[in-house]
Amino acid sequence: MGLVKEFKEFAMRGSVIDLAIGVIIGAAFGKIVSSLVNDVLMPPIGMLLGSLDFSSFAVTLKQGVDKTPAVLLKYGVFINNIIDFFIVAFVIFLSIKAINKLKRKTEEQQAVPPEPTKEELLLTDIRDILKSK
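Above: the chain's sequence. Below: its structure in token form.
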């Protein structure tokens, strides 16, 4: 029973739940980026390069025989995935940069010392008087 209790405590920590939410959102974001690359970016790039479709680029390693399909090395799909990766990495970089900028502003605002209270000013005056004697 102790193992179940420990697992429940572990799973209910805020950081674990935040991580799970991040993974789910990241997977959904990955699908959006893949669609952006495959359906929006690559067709015009292929058209500019002479009606090329990167996803169809492949090297045949073994020809198909009868009902056995050919063995292909699909380097065009790999190119699309590399572009996906760089777009996702760039968006994450921009997001982290924006978050860090907001954190710095918050830290700067917190770094400003608060105005001293009347009691603190009086104590400072008393200390100064006692030091001068």
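The radius of gyration is 30 Å.
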